[in-house]
Amino acid sequence: MKILILTILMSFFNSASAVDIGEHAPDFELQTMEGDSFKLSDHIGKKPVYLVFWATWCPICKAEIPNVKTIHQQLSDRITILAINVGQEDSVNKIKKYREDNQLPYQLAFDEGSKISRRYGVIGTPWQVIIDVNGKIQYRSSRTPINMEQHLDKLNFLDKRNEGQVLSLAILKKVRKAY
Q: What whole-number distance in Å separates Cα of residue 90 and Cα of residue 112?
């Protein structure tokens, strides 16, 4: 029931402001559970960024943990992972306990007031967003992407000719079809 209500509310609030594939990812800054600052723009030009929007009460989010752990274990040197709690019916203390109980090895952050979740058009949890090295959104879905390793070279292609502008349309289409 919580998922349905969150989906309806997020859809209502996100319709005008949601970002789509191929658009520039909105910058944001959050404090991680480790106390570090995570600013998206600090990662652009270096590595792709994989955002996982989730909630402690979401059973599908819990089922996705092994997949995200595998991506972290195999690819964390090639892609930055940040799991952002959407801030609905959760608290920092609940997140810390959840992290400990589920032995989550990747960075976690709390989206106080769901501001970032709204900016990214999160329409339920879990919600996954992959941002390429140029800062463009290349993937948006409720499902964990499969075969991410096969596409990392394309996500890491820094378009220096246009100083971070959109990758060629042909490359974008190939990456999207693969997901």
A: 9
Q: Are 164 and 45 in contact (CB under 8 A)?
A: yes
CB under 8 Å to 97, separation ≥6 — which residues?
none
| Residue indicated by tokens 């594939």 | 21
Instruction: Please write the tens of the pLDDT for every residue from 78-96.
Output: 999 999 999 999 999 999 9
Total of domains in the chain: 1
Give this prediction's pTM: 0.78
Residue 149: which CATH number? 3.40.30.10
Q: How far is CA 172 from CA 20, 117, 160, in A?
A: 13, 24, 16
Tokens (6 digits) for 159: 């378009």
Locate all alpha helices (DSSP H) within the chain, ordered by sequence. Answer: 2-14, 59-75, 92-102, 115-119, 148-155, 169-178
